[in-house]
Amino acid sequence: MTHSAPDTPAVALPNDLRPHLTPPARDWLDQALAEAAQGITPTTELHLAEAARRCGPPHADTARLLILQAAHPTPVDLTRVYHRGTADERRAVLHALPDLVAGPDAVPLIEDALRTNDTRLLSAALGPYAAHHLSAHLWRHAILKCLFTGVPVAGVAQLAARAHGDAELARMLADFAAERTAAGRPVPEDLHHVLALTDPEAVPPHPAHEDGVPHGKES
Length: 219
Known about the structure:
Blueprint: H1 23-36, H2 42-49, H3 51-55, H4 57-71, H5 75-84, H6 87-100, H7 107-114, H8 119-125, H9 128-133, H10 136-149, H11 159-163, H12 167-182, H13 189-197
Helix pairs in contact: 1-4, 2-4, 4-6, 5-6, 6-8, 7-8
């Protein structure tokens, strides 16, 4: 059975985006959103791939995010899009996870992104979804990878809440700093910031748990 695209898109263009798009780009994105309402199809994946060419690189991330939101994909859909996509498309999937996946089903995508040396993927991976669902062990190693690769920790979601009172993270940071010093290499400024956050005597962040989701401190 063939479904025709709805007359209006499932996700409307944000008012702060619309004025920055050319008329052809607005028309293309409106149509892409309408077609995405049918789900993740080959056409939807094509639209994700051509977002930069159609809307311009400055607006491609927003366009891809809107298309994914309009499609209401399952974790299986997102996994397929992620592994088939370019780095830019993978980043779009990672940014979309908090709005599209309620449980931990998409954690393997976060883990895959953290194994790369693409700093933009690393940054995208450590958003609110990882803050809620990534294990303490993997989260700690992700923070160390940020320090090693130069990814600013300011972009890590719920950094203060997860680092607070984490003695194991403090130990790992101290070891990393000692290794850098012994090798005659500078210690990243962000390391001192994160280390201060692990102090159990510091005033805990408020609220400590976003959306009421606790974060364990298991080793």
